[in-house]
Each structure stands twice: as structure tokens, then as C-alpha cells.
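Researcher: Let's walk through a ligand-bound prediction step by step. First, I give you the protein sequence. Second, the SMILES string for zinc ion. Third, you return the three-dimensional complex as C-alpha cells. Ready?
Model: Ready.
Researcher: Here are steps one and two:
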Amino acid sequence: MTECFRCKKALTADEIGAYMKLVNRGAREFLCISCLARDLGVDEAYIRQKIEQFKKSGCTLFG
Ligand SMILES: [Zn+2]
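Model: Step three, the predicted complex:
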């Protein structure tokens, strides 16, 4: 199981995909939405909205 490398929360495929799209496509460790939002200086809703956009555009990082 993949965990957030900061808070150790278990990650969903969406969170991993979002991290890859928004931070680093080649990442091997990932942040959960909460930690990622804090790092990017945005709120979680913004990231969830991005995830929906990526899914709609058929991005293969999202199952
Ligand atoms: Zn976290």
C-alpha cells in the first residue's frame, strides 16, 4: 500500500494520479490531497476539481 510520505495516510489512486499530474510525473513517493494542497497553497477542493478534469480528459494515470 502506498502512503503519503508526510502524514502516512493511505493514498487512493486519485491522490497518486493528482500528485503525478500536478507535481512530478515520475514521482516514486506521493502526498495525499491535504498535504499536496498545503504545499501548492491551494485548497483541497481545487485539487479534487483538477482530478475530475483529468478523468474527463481521459488521462491514463487515473483508473
Ligand atoms: Zn498527507
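Researcher: And what stands out?
Model: Helices lie at 13-22, 33-40, 44-56. Residues 4, 6-7, 9, 31-32, 34-35 surround zinc ion (CB under 6 Å).
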